[in-house]
Specification:
heterotrimer, A alpha+beta (478), B alpha/beta (471), C alpha+beta (97), A: 478 residues, alpha+beta, three-stranded antiparallel beta sheet, elongated, B: 471 residues, alpha/beta, Amidase signature (AS) enzymes, eleven-stranded mixed beta sheet, 15 helices, globular
């Protein structure tokens, strides 16, 4: 039985403004409960919303970066429902005339390039937080998050696998980060994702019935949940069962989705135009200016890196994903005149390892383009081995901003490349290991490595390994 | 004579000439309130007299030392604001409405919370959880609503002036019933920040006063742009008092719409005949060819649009963060339903039901959207008319104040008494009601003037001239 | 022909009615709806709805922090609170978040 898998993703992104969307409360992660609340976001009687200009600007940037078109007239609507974390009893959102519609995100490359269409991007306010596990009889409400600005980005159901979904999310995150619209850190609640998954028999009912999966807290969870759902729905279809349209929750611990116990009421949100907010519009001139001010987006940057610096797809992807990293790379090559491949190796290797280990961003380290170039330069010149530079010099450079040459001298790491010194050690090792020498002469290639190792030991790691290797081979050939 | 019987202007002059002091005036007002408005058997314009303390922040300004009463849906920091509803009893606002800040900055003395229809739903002040207010002209009759208390205290000289709110006539109709002056400004003229919302696209706060001059003075203080209200107009506030300098109306074109000329009650017909005579004598030209063909649908439109917005505005009254919460709350659903079921009165529940229904799936297009489109037609009618005339004339209400309990059995009958006031709210235009004539039974009949957006000056000029003619 | 399923609308609006009240309100609301139905006669072809009577647009506030309430002030009016939170009857299954 051939099945058709259709997936759509609804992503809520927290916009990186200083204050909430309709009031002046600061937006801060993990503040003490109910410490970031004012009469407006508390929903007190008589209060009124006023739109944050920065939120509008960030949202517009996102629309344009995704290739979408702003609506001619942009309006807000009320989405009416009752819930304790929704102070006004309605959420100010957008229904009929969103900030933008259309656009696409490209995933894959070359032959496997796929364009995933975006349906819309709209602005809305977030609700507060509810806590259910502190008591048997009560739930608790924290309104710090109420009024936080969100951009809801809805994809068309163009995705067909969990891998595609994962890639879509990664690309979306890279784009939004690169334009400074959001950090998209799921752990900090800056990005939330719901997945709509539908598996149906080919040539069967048209799209319409879908299962919505919620409670996905990481990109990995999104991938796993989609995979699980595909299997679950496929098995159901095989058994001839009907798949009900419903909302299911992802259980991270058990790695499966489960249906909600209570029958979900069909929500009637009674959308109508928000009378407390006036309509908004952007002129073609403003759109052009905003578009012109967009930085080079990750995909374009990646392609340019591949072209300009002859990097592999893999390296180019890694280097173009974040603005800071891309800038470090480009400046290193263009200003400090590093070799592109060498720079790529250093950045995707030791630099990334350091950042991930310490969980910091590049700007939080002491690394500069000059320092990186100097460190790499020592290896190029043969003053130290790559191993020594990576393990002993680089950590000091990136953490404390020390001059690599100075560190090398202080730690006494300078490699010996002097032929006579090397020759002396090599001769000694050859004399000390006649059996191994004989093995090498007898055809065992790996014996040479053993001898190199012995020279390294004798020189306390300071011999230039490559040079030692070629000298040994030379000597033994004689 | 008690200083409570003076107008604001008269008091300001007495203060200036040191013939009376601000303390004396306040004492007289407070004493009048405590004597005449003591309990629910009296006029009962005020709520909660025991806890009413005067509030003044500045000693100088255009309203220095003038006591002003506020309708119970206008927030004052540290004071109760209940909209005359059980669900908000005990609610103390942590902030003041912008109009309150403006009054205080002008030196006014805030004194007294006035009674109203619950959540401003009503035209008679009979749905208050505190009991009804009575008409000072005839205590067997209603003062009008929803700003019944605000109009009654001014008419009864238990206030110098007051603020009310108008969504479908709630300032003008009680002003008419009580024989005082009430102005509903252009939508966006006065900030709504701190006004507990009924219908967001219709509500406006406005002054209720003993004469037109006081009204112009009060509006000049409370009008103006407010950055806390997105729907607040960024239009400069003219000197409204200047409009009162010349009482001749020569050159003024006043429209008397065809539709209004028909179906007048005997009292209204008498009022209009007299009005036309007086205005013409003052030099105005009355244009009887003006037509407002869609105003006959105004009440139908209003009773979809207003309850729809109200049903949403009242969703925040859920017992979670403030206000009343029902005692028996087995689960979240019953907490909501019991809190709101007990906390809201009958008219409030009716309007919430009507509004929820009009917005609900399957009915939204047929009701809400349709009503909003007819609203455009009504607005267009006025735009057209104001190309030909400077102002429009009509009665404020079909008749004088009706008796308490007379219209409470049939909601629809009550709604239909708003027929002349509603269209100004739908169109967003300013409208003023002044005492026009007396009914057959000797009760006040209000005369209403409407003008195009931000033309309050025109209204004050005409109203002042008319007022002078009646003296 | 009856317009309204009052019990359903009451549920949407979180209002509790006794059976008696339900009947009474239903009759009153029916009458009002019959009245507003007169709008059916109006031709609104090509007419835009008016959501805002004033022709205002693009009203913003600047992204500058303003002081928030203290937690005491936030919770002061709450019918029930515990510690730093508002307290409500327990929600068994959090559907929407």
């Amino acid at each position: 039985m051939t099945t058709l898998v259709t997936i759509g993703l609804e992503v809520h992104v927290q916009l990186a403004s200083k204050t909430k969307i309709f009031c002046g409360c600061a937006v801060r992660f993990a503040s003490a409960p109910n410490s970031q609340v004012c009469p407006v976001c508390l929903g007190l009687p008589g209060t009124l919303p006023v739109l944050n200009r920065e939120v509008f600007r960030l949202g517009l940037k996102a629309v344009l970066a995704l290739g979408g078109t702003p609506s001619k007239t942009i309006r807000f609507d009320r989405k009416n429902y009752f819930y304790p974390d929704l102070p006004k009893g309605y959420q100010i959102s957008q229904f009929a005339d969103p900030l933008g519609s259309g656009g696409l995100i490209e995933i894959g490359s070359g032959e496997s390039l796929k364009r995933v269409r975006i349906n819309r991007l709209h602005l809305e306010e977030d609700a507060g937080k509810l806590i259910h596990d502190q008591s048997e009889v009560s739930s608790f409400v924290d309104l710090n998050r109420a009024g936080t600005p969100l951009a809801e980005i809805v994809s068309e159901p163009d995705l067909e696998s969990s891998e595609e979904a994962y890639e879509y999310l990664s690309s979306l995150k890279a784009i939004l980060k690169s334009i400074g619209v959001s950090e998209c850190d799921m752990e900090k609640g800056q990005l939330r994702c719901d997945a709509n998954v539908s598996v149906r028999k080919l040539r069967e009912e048209p799209l319409g019935k879908k299962v919505e999966v919620k409670n996905l807290n990481s990109f990995k969870a999104v991938k796993a949940a989609i995979e699980h759902e595909i299997v679950r729905q496929s098995e159901a279809l095989e058994k001839g069962e009907k798949i009900p349209q419903e909302t299911r929750l992802w259980d991270e611990a058990r790695q499966k989705t489960f249906s909600m116990r209570s029958k979900e009421e069909a929500h009637d949100y009674r959308y109508f135009p928000e009378p407390d907010l006036v309509p908004f519009s952007v002129t073609p001139k403003e759109i052009e200016e905003a578009r012109a001010s967009l930085p080079e987006l990750p995909k374009a940057k990646k392609e340019r890196f591949m072209r300009e610096f002859q990097l592999s797809d893999y390296d180019a992807s890694l280097l173009s994903a974040q603005n800071e990293v891309a800038e470090l790379f480009e400046t290193a090559v263009k200003k400090s005149l590093m070799d592109a491949k060498v720079a790529a190796n250093w950045i995707t290797g030791p630099v990334f390892a350091y950042l991930s280990e310490r969980n910091v961003s590049l700007s939080q380290t002491a690394l500069t383009t000059a320092l990186l170039a100097d460190t790499a330069g020592l290896v190029q010149k043969g003053s130290v081995s790559f191993q020594a530079a990576k393990e002993k010099i680089f950590p000091e450079v990136i953490e404390k901003g020390l001059d690599p040459k100075m560190v090398m001298k202080e730690k006494n790491l300078e490699q010996v490349s002097d032929d006579s010194a090397l020759d002396r050690w090599i001769s000694e090792v050859i004399l000390d290991n006649p059996k191994v020498v004989a093995e090498f002469k007898g055809g065992k290639e790996t014996s040479a490595m053993f001898l190199v190792g012995q020279v390294m030991k004798k020189s306390q790691g300071k011999a230039h390994p490559a040079k030692v290797q070629s000298m040994i081979r030379q000597k033994l050939k004689e | 004579m008690s200083l409570a019987q003076k107008t604001a202007f008269q008091l300001l002059e007495l203060y200036r000439n040191k013939k009376a002091s601000e303390e004396e005036a306040l004492t007289d007002v407070v004493s009048a309130v405590h004597t005449k408005d003591r309990d629910t058997r009296s006029i009962h314009a005020y709520i909660d007299l025991e806890h009413s303390t005067p509030l003044q922040k500045q000693v100088s300004g255009p309203l220095a030392g003038i006591p002003i009463a506020l309708k119970d849906n206008i927030c004052v920091e540290g004071r109760e604001a209940t909209c005359a509803s059980e669900i908000l009893k005990g609610f103390v606002s942590p902030y003041s409405a912008t109009v309150v800040e403006k009054l205080l900055n002008a030196g006014a003395v805030i004194f007294g919370r006035t009674n109203m229809d619950e959540f401003a739903f009503g035209s008679s002040c009979e749905t208050s959880c505190y009991g009804p207010t009575r008409n000072p002209r005839d205590p067997e009759r209603v003062p009008g609503g929803s700003s019944g208390g605000s109009a009654a205290c001014v008419a009864d000289d238990t206030a110098i002036a007051s603020l009310g709110s108008d969504t479908g006539g709630s300032i003008r109709q009680p002003a008419a019933f009580c024989g005082v002056v009430g102005m509903k400004p252009t939508y966006g003229r006065v900030s709504r920040y701190g006004l507990i919302a009924f219908a967001s696209s219709l509500d406006q706060i406005g002054p209720i006063t003993k004469d037109v001059r006081d009204n112009a003075l009060l509006l000049s203080v409370i009008a103006g742009h407010d950055s806390k209200d997105s729907t607040s107009a960024n239009v400069s506030v003219p000197d409204y008092l200047k409009a009162l300098e010349d009482t001749k109306l020569s050159g003024m074109k006043i429209g008397y719409p065809l539709e209004i000329q028909k179906d007048l009650t005997p009292d209204a017909a008498k009022l209009m005949t007299e009005a036309v005579k007086i205005l013409e004598k003052k030099g105005a030209v009355i244009d009887r060819s003006i037509t407002l063909p869609h105003t006959k649908y105004a009440v139908n439109v209003y009773y979809i649009v207003a309850p729809s917005e109200a049903s949403s505005n009242l969703a925040r009254f859920d017992g979670v963060r403030f206000g009343h919460r029902a005692a028996a709350t087995a689960n979240l659903l019953s907490m909501y339903e019991n809190t709101r079921g007990h906390g809201f009165g009958a008219e409030a529940k009716r309007r919430i039901i009507l509004g929820t229904y009009s917005l609900s799936s399957g009915y939204y297009d047929a009701y809400y959207v349709k009503a909003m489109k007819v609203r455009t037609l009504i607005k267009n009618d006025f735009d057209e008319a104001f190309k030909k005339v400077d102002a429009i004339l009509m009665p404020t209400a079909p008749s004088a104040a009706f008796k308490l309990g007379e219209k409470t059995k049939d909601p629809l009958e009550m709604y239909l008494s708003d027929i002349y006031t509603i269209s100004a709210n739908l169109a967003g235009i300013p409208a003023i009601s002044i005492p026009g004539a007396l009914s057959e039974g000797g009760l006040p009949l209000g005369l209403q003037f409407l003008a195009k957006p931000f033309a309050e000056e025109t209204l004050y000029k005409i109203a002042h001239s008319y007022e002078e003619a009646l003296k | 022909m009856k317009h309204i399923d009052l019990a359903h609308v009451a549920r949407l609006a979180r209002l509790r009615f006794s059976d008696e009240e339900l009947k009474k309100y239903e009759a009153q609301v029916e009458e009002i709806l019959k009245f507003v139905d007169q709008l059916k006669a109006v031709n609104v072809e090509g007419i835009e709805p008016t959501s805002h009577p004033l022709k205002l647009s693009n009203v913003f506030r600047e992204d500058m922090p303003a002081p928030a309430f203290s937690v005491e002030e936030v919770l002061k009016r709450a019918p029930r609170s515990r510690g730093r939170f508002f307290e409500v009857p327990k929600i068994i299954e959090d559907k929407t978040r």
